[in-house]
Amino acid sequence: MTAFVSVAPELEAANHQYAEHFTAADLPSPPSRLDPAKALGLELGDAHVIRNAGGRAVEAMRSILISQQMLGTREIIVLHHKFSDSEFRTKVRKELNEDVDHMSFLPFSDLRQSVLDDVQLLKKSPLVLNVPITGYIYDVKTGKIEQV
Predict the structure, then answer these.
(1) Where does the pLDDT of residue 1 fall: very low under 50, low under 70, confident under 90, or very high at 90 and above?
(2) What UniProt keywords are attached to this protein's entry (predicted)?
């Protein structure tokens, strides 16, 4: 088996530069406007970015499998961001005049643990190649990533 060298240190260095000039902290609903490629210093074609509502790896498994098998992806970065369930519900009530209390938006009760859980899920899955998998938390107020 071929050993793959992680590019995570390069992504962290690029993110440090990005965060120094970050000015989008006041955007409404910043997570949906996050550009992971820009935040990690990637150019078009450098990475296959898989996004999904809720951000959980289990929901992205089909896309990860296709990415590895069809596109040759050889590293996985798990990136979760802070999400305020109550702020979102208030926004929906205010803007749509609708109550969404009956819906679950799956907020993380422990953000750090959710990243660790997703990294472990991917590492243990027989469908995921044995490649570097690194987890991060993205701070929507500062633009910084923190390795978990």
Answers:
(1) low
(2) Metal-binding, Zinc
CA–CA dist 145, 19 (Å, integer): 9
In a domain, 1, yes or no: no
Q: Which two tokens stand for residue 82?
A: 């802070």
Domains in the chain, number: 1
Contacts of 124 (CB under 8 A, 6+ apart): none
Phi-psi region of 108 (alpha: psi -120 to 50; beta: other; left: phi over 0): beta
Inside any domain, residue 54: yes
| H or E stretch at 134 | strand 133-138
How far apart (Å, rounded) are the C-alpha atoms in residues 132 and 76? 6
Higher-scoring residue by pLDDT: 117, 28: 117
81 is in an annotated binding site: yes
Range of the domain at 123: 8-147
Read off the pLDDT of residues 110-146 as tens digits, 9 standing for 90 and up.
Answer: 899 999 999 999 999 999 999 999 999 998 888 999 9
Task: Return d(Cα 34, Cα 29) in angstroms, integer.
Answer: 9
pTM more than 0.85? no
